[in-house]
Amino acid sequence: MTSSSRTAPIGVTGLGVMGANIARNLARHGHAVAVYNRSPQRTAELVSNHGRDGTFLAAGTIEEFVSTLEKPRRALIMVQAGAATDAVIEQLAGAMEHGDIIIDGGNSLYTDTRRREAELRERGIHFVGCGISGGEEGALEGPSIMPGGSAEAYEAVGPLLESISAHVDGTPCCAHIGPDGAGHYVKMVHNGIEYADMQLIGEAFQLMTGVLGYSPARCAEVFAEWNRGVLESYLIEITAEVLAQVDDATGRPLVEMILDATGQKGTGRWTVKSALDLGVPVTGIAEAVFARAVSGSRDLRAAATGLAGGELATTLGEALPGVDEQSFLDDIHAALYASKVVAYAQGFNQLTAGSEEYEWSLRPGELATIWRGGCIIRAQFLGRIREAYDADPALPSLLLDPYFRDAVEGSIGSWRRVVAAAALMGVPVPGFGSALAYYDSVRADRLPAALLQGLRDFFGAHTYERIDKPGHFHTLWGGDRSETTAG
Ligand SMILES: NC(=O)C1=CN([C@@H]2O[C@H](COP(=O)(O)OP(=O)(O)OC[C@H]3O[C@@H](n4cnc5c(N)ncnc54)[C@H](OP(=O)(O)O)[C@@H]3O)[C@@H](O)[C@H]2O)C=CC1
Ligand SMILES: O=C(CO)[C@H](O)[C@H](O)COP(=O)(O)O
């Protein structure tokens, strides 16, 4: 795309960590970029520090920023989700014209995106709610981009966004996701899966230290080794880096000096809230969100520190007689992989349910394709997920795909040993444990839900269904206990 030096095909406003690097990425790809930031020094710093990346057209006001854009104007917002995004949208829309396009690249809540898209459509302005993943480095080098909105808007912004996205095997990690909030919904679930993946990695680390007595440096070596196999992924790669880091001030492993309370900005929590509304069991993501909440409950944890753990096994040999160190390490690897398959299977089921609820026609295989590169959960594994959905676009669960089925069935013994050893030694593994419980639940012939139905009918006349005939039934619990047919 060419442009004169005084106009730009796209502008970026919000030049913080992400916005500045996306603007630089655009410039490096030969697109002139209009840039504007509320605090002018950020704009000045970007242009003076990185002017050699390409053509930046610095604007001092939002009106000047908009006037620099070629028609239809394309403005990418990279500011905090919520009120800040609404404020910037309003400023832009006030200066824009019919047919112009506002792209929100922040981590906005998909329901806000649906509202904004509808409001702006009424005003003749296209709104593209666009998930962007890759962090600071990905924004510069090539993120995974998940744009929602109308097909017409995608025609106008897609080529630009695809040009700056990561590419895997020549395919851009960017595709039109679907209407209104689809892009932000997909990014939200991506982040939910990211939470689950990180929690599982954290539990693997805790098992290595708590059961095998490994130092962070030894764990770093293990993760680096694992990154050469089926677990190969950005998160495993950076786990090895973080664990190998030594604190300059103390000479100790940095991870031992970091407060063990995980922060969150909200996307994982939103994922779980949506899953609860849709009735989709995303236990891996939920456990990860709650594990962060437990870690941050400093007062509770301080008060509970003295609680007894019971008669704990103190060595692997006591917990699992006959299991040696190397085979338990292999078990952790297998359990991590199986639990990860469950977390992704659940996340993809949520995407399917969200798609049905909002009529987005999401294509799970395409989502796996654009997550193969650029984003935080990028991994070899996503190529397998794409293959699974290519083979069967209506797959009810990744657990039923032949490749993943074999992988998980081959891990079951390890998975059970790991969860058992963790329980016997008092190492908390909510992610591993809940993933195994989910697996055992979905494959079970019978669940205790029948008893729960009986109880609900007993105290609330909520009725139950029977396995031998259709209809809804109620037992006269307070009377002669005969069964009646409910309406
Ligand atoms: N950091 C990350 O790894 C990722 C972040 N995101 C999302 O991208 C968005 C930006 O994140 P990030 O770059 O990290 O954030 P930063 O905190 O680094 O930058 C925030 C930017 O928003 C601007 N801003 C804030 N409030 C307003 C307002 N009311 N009006 C105008 N401008 C405002 C700030 O301007 P000023 O300089 O004047 O304060 C600044 O330029 C967020 O939605 C975030 O969730 C998405 C993927 C990854
Ligand atoms: O979107 C992202 C990566 O994909 C951001 O890094 C996000 O902020 C991570 O979420 P949280 O801060 O809640 O851990």
UniProtKB/TrEMBL annotation:
<feature type="binding site">
    <location>
        <begin position="37"/>
        <end position="39"/>
    </location>
    <ligand>
        <name>NADP(+)</name>
    </ligand>
</feature>
<feature type="binding site" description="in other chain">
    <location>
        <begin position="133"/>
        <end position="135"/>
    </location>
    <ligand>
        <name>substrate</name>
    </ligand>
</feature>
<dbReference type="GO" id="GO:0004616">
    <property type="term" value="F:phosphogluconate dehydrogenase (decarboxylating) activity"/>
</dbReference>
<protein>
    <recommendedName>
        <fullName>6-phosphogluconate dehydrogenase, decarboxylating</fullName>
        <ecNumber>1.1.1.44</ecNumber>
    </recommendedName>
</protein>
<comment type="pathway">
    <text>Carbohydrate degradation; pentose phosphate pathway; D-ribulose 5-phosphate from D-glucose 6-phosphate (oxidative stage): step 3/3.</text>
</comment>
<keyword id="KW-0521">NADP</keyword>
<feature type="active site" description="Proton donor">
    <location>
        <position position="194"/>
    </location>
</feature>
<keyword id="KW-0560">Oxidoreductase</keyword>
<dbReference type="Pfam" id="PF00393">
    <property type="entry name" value="6PGD"/>
</dbReference>
<keyword id="KW-0570">Pentose shunt</keyword>
<feature type="binding site" description="in other chain">
    <location>
        <position position="107"/>
    </location>
    <ligand>
        <name>substrate</name>
    </ligand>
</feature>
<dbReference type="InterPro" id="IPR006114">
    <property type="entry name" value="6PGDH_C"/>
</dbReference>
<comment type="subunit">
    <text>Homodimer.</text>
</comment>
<dbReference type="InterPro" id="IPR013328">
    <property type="entry name" value="6PGD_dom2"/>
</dbReference>
<keyword id="KW-0311">Gluconate utilization</keyword>
<feature type="binding site">
    <location>
        <position position="456"/>
    </location>
    <ligand>
        <name>substrate</name>
    </ligand>
</feature>
<feature type="binding site">
    <location>
        <begin position="79"/>
        <end position="81"/>
    </location>
    <ligand>
        <name>NADP(+)</name>
    </ligand>
</feature>
<feature type="domain" description="6-phosphogluconate dehydrogenase C-terminal">
    <location>
        <begin position="183"/>
        <end position="478"/>
    </location>
</feature>
<feature type="binding site" description="in other chain">
    <location>
        <begin position="190"/>
        <end position="191"/>
    </location>
    <ligand>
        <name>substrate</name>
    </ligand>
</feature>
<dbReference type="GO" id="GO:0019521">
    <property type="term" value="P:D-gluconate metabolic process"/>
</dbReference>
<feature type="binding site">
    <location>
        <position position="462"/>
    </location>
    <ligand>
        <name>substrate</name>
    </ligand>
</feature>
<dbReference type="InterPro" id="IPR006184">
    <property type="entry name" value="6PGdom_BS"/>
</dbReference>
<dbReference type="Pfam" id="PF03446">
    <property type="entry name" value="NAD_binding_2"/>
</dbReference>
<comment type="function">
    <text>Catalyzes the oxidative decarboxylation of 6-phosphogluconate to ribulose 5-phosphate and CO(2), with concomitant reduction of NADP to NADPH.</text>
</comment>
<feature type="binding site">
    <location>
        <position position="107"/>
    </location>
    <ligand>
        <name>NADP(+)</name>
    </ligand>
</feature>
<dbReference type="InterPro" id="IPR006113">
    <property type="entry name" value="6PGDH_Gnd/GntZ"/>
</dbReference>
<dbReference type="InterPro" id="IPR006115">
    <property type="entry name" value="6PGDH_NADP-bd"/>
</dbReference>
<feature type="binding site" description="in other chain">
    <location>
        <position position="265"/>
    </location>
    <ligand>
        <name>substrate</name>
    </ligand>
</feature>
<dbReference type="GO" id="GO:0006098">
    <property type="term" value="P:pentose-phosphate shunt"/>
</dbReference>
<dbReference type="GO" id="GO:0050661">
    <property type="term" value="F:NADP binding"/>
</dbReference>
<feature type="active site" description="Proton acceptor">
    <location>
        <position position="187"/>
    </location>
</feature>
<feature type="binding site">
    <location>
        <begin position="14"/>
        <end position="19"/>
    </location>
    <ligand>
        <name>NADP(+)</name>
    </ligand>
</feature>
<dbReference type="InterPro" id="IPR006183">
    <property type="entry name" value="Pgluconate_DH"/>
</dbReference>
<dbReference type="InterPro" id="IPR036291">
    <property type="entry name" value="NAD(P)-bd_dom_sf"/>
</dbReference>
<feature type="binding site" description="in other chain">
    <location>
        <position position="292"/>
    </location>
    <ligand>
        <name>substrate</name>
    </ligand>
</feature>
<comment type="similarity">
    <text>Belongs to the 6-phosphogluconate dehydrogenase family.</text>
</comment>
<feature type="binding site" description="in other chain">
    <location>
        <position position="195"/>
    </location>
    <ligand>
        <name>substrate</name>
    </ligand>
</feature>
<dbReference type="InterPro" id="IPR008927">
    <property type="entry name" value="6-PGluconate_DH-like_C_sf"/>
</dbReference>
